[in-house]
What does this fold into?
Amino acid sequence: MGRKHSNRAYGFEIKEAAVKNAIRVFREIAEQINGRKVVMIFDYDGTLSEIRKSPEEAVMQPDTQALLYNFTKMCGYKIIILSGRARNNVKKMVGLNGITYIGNHGFDALGDIRVPALSRAYMKLLSAILRDLKKNLKHINGIRIEAKKYSVSFHYRNVARGSENKAADAFRNITGPYVKAKKINILKGKKVLEVMPPIKWGKGETVKQIVKSNRGAENPAFMYFGDDVTDENAFQALKGKGFSFFVGNSARTKADYFLRSPKEVNKFLRKLLYYVRCE
Ligand SMILES: [Mg+2]
It folds into this structure.
């Protein structure tokens, strides 16, 4: 990683110096990965697919799906998708077998990945909050309330510009007392607020689990791709242990590299697929 610049006047160039574009330094990355086992972890929305008006519309380009498919068939490669969506939902969006899907920011996983237990009291409260949100916020045009089994998402992407704060305030009025009482956590993403369990757990802890359960003797290369604030803990968890890629244009990321868009993620994966060898 390049050195941090304190002079803000440099603007965009600082960004380029601090976090490297993964396409530009492709060989530097590929050479460190070639011939090793690789564990690739992807966020979904904004990383593999463009963000759309509604979650159902956020489908991947068909060639991104084909690239992922090829990686699932590549020897020594393990593909994991770690999303804020419900596990079954993200699995449906990606539509491929041979991938490990983890939903709800790490609260919804199968197999050898540890997941914190959720109390019956939390599940009951979550249903009550869901009912409350639906009942009291339905008058706000453009909001969408999504039940995701272990969490509830409040999407306000399609709310009229001037009403976004009003919508977020209405959400906080309902959820605020439970946050104060430490019965829930609120997670903020891109135009979405999520009611989550009151447990310090998320993509960062989940990535630590993935590293632990895959480390073994073979020293695999871990790669993580994500675009949102919720992915920053995952970048942090991989510091010095793998390769992290922020998707988007921002100087404020803990990732080692950046890719400008899901299109550039696609381009990077294509280059990697042609470069790496199956041992
Ligand atoms: Mg995302």
Observations:
- The chain has two domains: 22-115+217-275, 120-196.
